[in-house]
Amino acid sequence: SSSSSSSSSPPLSPSKQPVAVSIQDARAGAALKAAAEHARNLHIQQRPCADAWFKADENLASVFEDVETYRLYGKDAVDRDVRILLDLAGYPRTQYGAHKLLEDCGFWSRHEVPAVVGAGVQAVFDEHVEHDAATLACPTNRVDDEHAEHRKDLTKLRSIAIDDPWTEEVDDAVYAEPHPSKEGWIRIFVHIADPTRFIPLGSEVEKEAAQRSTSCYMPTGTATMLPSVLAKAACSLHERDVEANAKPRAAMTVRVDIKPDGSIGSYAVVGSQIMAPRRATYDEVEAFSTTQAARWEHEETFTEPFDQLGSDDVVTLNEAEDEDATALACLFAAASRRRAYRDRNQCVTFPQIECRVLVSRGSFEQEAGVPRSFTAGPHPDDAALGDDTVVALQRIESSSMLAREMVKEMMVLTGETIAMYGAKNNIPLAFRGQDTPTLPSESELPSHPHARAVVMRRCMTRAKLSVTDPINHASLGLPGYVQFTSPIRRYSDLLAHYQIKAFLRDEEIPFTDKNISLRLGESDDSVRDRNKAGRESDTYWVHEFFRRRAAEAVANGDVTIATFNLTPLLYLRDTGTIAVVCCEEVGAEFVTRIPEMSGDGKGVRPPIGESIELTIERACPIDKKIDVVFPSEWKVVGEYDGDDSDKENVSPEPPKPELVTSDNEK
To answer: What is the mean pLDDT of residues 7-24?
Structure first.
């Protein structure tokens, strides 16, 4: 085990069940045992990787592949009984044992996440794709803009890109103003990056984007859908190069006029040229919306929507930025109207707990403008073998929620507009929908907002897809919806751009109903796998954070290092204390068995929504288990060894339905 000393004895207790072993399996098991004993004593960086094992011994490497298949998909996916091999090699006859064997031998890297391996997620691109991307991004080698004659010059319009401070792929910007002729209406501009200006259909980059289907965001880094030279530079509406930002940017612009009741009055969709937008963070925009200051001297009516959103006053920026201040006031007013409009259509919304998980090498530096972090250094046993990773968890505070909701409403508005546009012009698109969920009654829902969210999201239905007509999207409260605002990181959005731009040029639409349906089917399967990989990666590192905190508490003899405020959100059974909990300090959700509280002479489980101070006794990221106790009952326990993997497993809640409720997912 990577957490063992230099002794060659097996670190794990294998199952002692008697089994019949073939000669072939006996040899394979002995080879695995020898390989593990050799590799465990090596520095992590010196252990042979999968490629090295194939070069050294193809037969043994094929056995490793069987072990890997068992770890990813279970025993039924492998012809041989891998559990026998694990037993012979000195490992538990479980998927945990398979994971440890692969890790110890170097066939998997340290901290490998099975869902990431299974989805084939790779951060790097093949050389021919990178070459194609560099050629397409180079100003002197770029393909001609086939939409050039149809682009509307909007370079005199201002725009604001509102993102987190760490965002590098800027794929949308917004602006708004009072309607020039209709009293009470608001005119909104949503500018979306136009990667199809650089990426021709059939190019190596487009083929790779189709295969990846979406960017995969993980604590260890992002596996982008497009190479960085395009995603973070040429295609982005804003890049770090000051000179590049001084030139017009290719975009798709959706202009929408909002009525006082929040419905769409009129709209237009055009290819455009805009100047790089002004950058602003959610917190900056939030401060604008809530700081008490002088009222507007112009359009005082825009203070009312802020009151509806929960703010008492409206603040101006400095005089030089009054135009942007007016735009933000209009955007918040429009967001208020749109939310009221969707509420009337019975949209389903609930608060979300957000935890940002970060992993770095060697040290973690606090980023400017981001929430305070709780960090955990390498586990002592792993550090001895060269593991220098540091894990940080950040709770995304609700202080920027109004700004996030405003941006979300603008993106949802764009999705509804594109659905209307596609239906009107018979353009095959990915029309997304969702049936109305059956929710518990108000009296059956818990009062705690996050506990309520856990219950409600388990009731949501799966997304539906049509390529010919809009379908009702119950959770959004819209008659139709098309994802359009994230073409840099989502392939279905990129397809929508190809389709609509061809229509605007009065050319043949590239994909028929049947063709786009096939493309979307393949893409959606990949999106599900990659989204799961991102979620599972977050889950792994959250458990690893608590594993390290527990070890640090033992090393320092300080229980407070591993003590947190945990709030039960949902009990998974009618009896017992296995529950979905939230760690209040970092905003992370996980499943654990909560110790019973004493009451009336017998154990009672803590109430939903009531925070309890508990200590992490031990955690296992591989099996996604966390054991907690009251601080007064804390004691030193050994590391989890996987022996009880086949017993009752405290596993995370079932996979959540793959739903799209917002384009604001950066």
So the answer is: 56
